[in-house]
Write a structure and sequence with these properties.
- The strands form three sheets. A six-stranded antiparallel barrel has the order 2-11-14-13-12-15. Strands 3-10-8-5 form a four-stranded antiparallel sheet, with no helix packed on it.
- The protein folds into four domains: 6-48, no CATH class; 62-75 and 313-398, conserved putative lor/sdh protein from methanococcus maripaludis s2 fold (Beta Barrel), CATH 2.40.420.20; 78-87 and 234-309, Efflux pump adaptor protein, beta barrel domain (Elongation Factor Tu (Ef-tu), domain 3, Beta Barrel); 89-229, OB fold (Dihydrolipoamide Acetyltransferase, E2P) (Beta Barrel).
- Helix content is 26%, strand content 37%.
- It has 399 residues and is of the alpha+beta class.
- The longest helix has 33 residues, at 124-156.
Length: 399
């Protein structure tokens, strides 16, 4: 190796010229020259190039699974909230006036039948008045029979002239008056009989006792409410539906209801309310809950439900294919069909209904028949333009 002479460095100091002329300086200069040559050589350029596949295609960034969107028939539902209430309530009260309550035979929550005795009032005074009314009727009937006989005898003597017309008229009038007293006594007897019947408070229909205010020993005026019944045990859901959606709600539509307790029940639309609340701009839709409603659903509960408005076609993708970023929803679709890798394209979409693990794509994606495949597993780690390797769903699950 040639070592430069000190005269080759005229501008350096003596000490620097001595070092430059040393073998160490020559080795350093050779190392710098080799490094520059490597950087400028084709091997160095290849080290700076991006990684490619064996056939020159870009190397995939990751392995994903993909599937084509599906067109399915889904039930279009309208979600609403409301309260559970009794279909009809019956108020059971006293009809007799001024009688003391001596026995209560029904409690809240009891299921009762039509005509069942719910409470008993003191009947002793009514029985005595009934006996008195029977005696008065017997007396009136006896007097009426005697007056009728006298009137017939008087009419039989009319032809003989033994009695004047005035006397005959008096006997006839007495008979008519006696008969009126009989009818009055019969009416009084009927009243007392009815009062005796009213000493037993009966259920007007079968149902469930929802409230009880009866207290043993209380002297009650007529019309006092003792019990309240849910007629026939039937419940209804009163859903609040916006006025703009009312024309889509029809009588007979199926309803699925979920109470605050988590209990689920089925129902059917019975009636759409005729008026709209001016404050909330919503109308009540009355839904009959079908037999078999869980006991956990009670009147007065808040519940949410869905009214089935009919079947519609929906373009759906797996829920894991949907990526939410910066407040927007995206899908990654396969933009080309390269051999070793496929490039993905990000599409901004709008989603709608969710059923199970499928999500409806409302807009942003072509119809299912012409739509490209979407990345189902691994979409959350991709960026627009990434190259991926697509494997089957079974292989993706193994990974």
């Amino acid at each position: 190796m040639h070592t430069p002479s000190p005269a080759f460095f005229p501008s350096l100091s003596a000490q620097a010229r001595r070092w430059a002329a040393s073998p160490q300086a020559g080795l350093a200069l050779c190392a710098v020259a080799v490094a520059v040559a490597l950087l400028l050589s084709p091997l160095g350029s290849q080290a700076q190039a991006p990684a490619e596949g064996t056939n020159g295609a870009p190397k995939p960034a990751m392995t994903v699974t993909a599937e084509a969107p599906q067109s399915v028939s889904w039930t279009h539902a309208l979600t609403a909230n409301g309260s559970v209430a009794a279909w009809q309530e019956a108020s059971v009260g006293t009809e007799a006036n001024g009688l003391r309550l001596v026995e209560v035979r029904a409690q809240v929550g009891d299921t009762v039948k039509a005509g069942q005795v719910l409470a008993v009032l003191d009947a002793e005074g009514v029985k005595a008045e009934l006996a008195q009314a029977k005696a008065a009727l017997a007396e009136a009937q006896a007097n009426a029979a005697e007056a009728q006989a006298n009137a017939e005898r008087a009419r039989s003597l009319k032809a003989t002239g033994a009695m004047s017309e005035q006397q005959i008229a008096q006997y006839t009038t007495a008979a008519v008056t006696a008969q009126a007293r009989v009818e009055s006594a019969q009416a009084n007897l009927a009243v007392q009989t009815l009062r005796l019947k009213h000493t037993q408070v009966l259920a007007p229909d079968h149902g469930v006792v929802s409230a009880r205010s009866a207290t043993v020993g209380a002297v009650l005026p007529a019309g006092t409410e003792l019990f309240r019944l849910i007629r026939q045990g039937r419940l209804e859901w009163r859903a609040e539906v916006p006025a703009a959606e009312l024309d889509r709600v029809k009588v007979g539509q199926a309803v699925s209801l979920t109470a605050a307790s988590g209990a689920v029940a089925k129902g059917k639309v019975r009636m759409v309310g005729p008026t709209v609340d001016p404050q909330t701009r919503a109308a009540l839709v009355y839904v009959d809950l079908l037999p078999g409603t869980p006991a956990a659903i009670k009147a007065g509960m808040f519940a949410s439900g869905e009214l089935a408005l009919g079947q519609t076609q929906a373009t759906t993708v797996p829920q894991q294919a949907v990526v939410n970023r910066d407040g927007f929803t995206y899908l990654y679709v396969l933009a080309d069909e390269a051999t070793q890798g496929q490039r993905v394209q990000r599409l901004k979409v709008q989603v709608g209904r969710r059923v199970g693990d499928r999500v409806e794509v409302v807009s942003g994606l072509p119809a299912a028949a012409t739509a490209p495949r979407v990345v189902s597993q691994g979409a959350g780690f991709l960026s627009d333009g990434d190259v991926v390797k697509v494997v089957s769903a079974a292989a993706g699950d193994k990974k």
